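In this section we turn from sequence analysis to structure. A common task in structural bioinformatics is to predict how a protein folds when a small molecule is present, because the ligand can shape the pocket around it. The inputs are simple: the amino acid sequence and a SMILES string for the ligand, here zinc ion. Study the lines below before reading on.
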Amino acid sequence: MYSFNVRIVQSGILFGDLFKRLKDRENARTRVLGPSTSDQRNRQNTMSELYAGVDLGGTSIKCALAGADGEIVCQRSIPTESHAGPNSVLMRIAELVNEMQAEVGQSISAVGMGVPGLVDVERGVTRFLPNLTTHWENVPAGDILSAAIGCPVKLLNDVRTATLGELAFGRGREVDTMVFIAIGTGIGGGVVIDGKLRLGALGAAGELGHQTIDPNGPLCGCGNHGCLETLASGTALAAEGIRLMLMGLAPTLHDLVDGDPARVTAELMSQAALSDPPVLDAIYGAADDIGTGVANVMVTLHPELVILGGGVANIGDVLFDRVRAQVIRRVRMISPDTVRIEPSDLGSRAGVLGAIALASRGLGTG
Ligand SMILES: [Zn+2]
C-alpha cells in the first residue's frame, strides 16, 4: 500500500499576486538572457555538457542526447523486447547510448531514465515494473547502466520523469505549483509544489489515476474499485468504443478501423464522435470523470496549472472543454479561474526531456 504525503498549501492566490509573480519571473528571465559576459560564460558552460535521457516503455525505448537547456542533438528509438530479460534490455540501452555518444563525438556527463513502475530513487533499483516481463523486481538498473556507460545514472518513475520535463522545459516553467496527469494506457501523474517535484515517502506521490471516482466502479489493476484509471484511461475509453461498435452503435468508428476491435483508440474515437453520438457520449463520460479527478486535485493542492498529457489528451478541445465545465461545476471553494487546465506543449517528448532534466539538474529545478 502506498503512503501519501499530504501537504496543506495556501489557497486563494489573488489574480494580482499571480500576475505580479509571472511578471517578475519574466523580468528575471530577460535579465538572464542579457548580454553580460558572466551570463554568456555560464550559458556556454551549461551548453558544453551533454546528457542522455532515456524513456523506458513497455514496447519501445526512446533515447535523446541534449544539453542542460533541453536542446536535443540526437535521438533514437528501439523496441524494448522485455521478454529477453532486464540484463539484455539494459545492455541494449547502454549500447544505444554509447553509439549515440560516438555519433555526436562527445561524451555525456550523466544519464536520466524514466521507468514504468516503482523505483528506489536513492539506490537506482527498480522495485516493480508491471508492464515488463519478469517485472524487474530489485534490479540494480542504475549500477548496471553506470558500469556499461561510464557515468552516473539516475532513475525515476516515468510519469514523474515527464512531470520533471514539463517543469523544466514545458508549461511548468511559468508556475510554482502544478500537477501533471498523463492519460494513456493507464493514468499516472506528478505533483510539483514550490517548484519541486514531490515524490512522497515511497516515490508514489502523484498516483492520481488511482483516486476513487466511483466506489462501486470496475475493479482496477491496483485492487481498488472505480479508480479514475478504470473509467477514463485510453484502455477504458477504447473498451467502451469497442462495445459500442460491436453493438452496431458506432458505424463511423467501425469504418475507421475496418471493424477490427484491436485498432480502436481514443484518438480514432474522437474522429468518429461527430457522426456517432454514442461515441461522443463515451468521450464526454470519460471527460466528466477526468474533470472530477482534476476537481479533487484542485481543492487539495490549488495548483496554478494542471497539464493533461497522454493519448487521451490528444482528443483536444472536445475533451478539455468538458473537463473544464466539470471542474467549474464541482469546485466551489476556490475560483476555478485561478487554475489553468492545459494540454502539454511537449507531447511525447516530455519523457526524454524529463530524463535529461533528471540527469542534468536532479530532482530540483536547478
Ligand atoms: Zn487503481
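Residues 210, 220, 222, 224, 227, 229 surround zinc ion (CB under 6 Å). As an exercise, try to locate the residues that line the zinc ion site and compare them with your own expectations.
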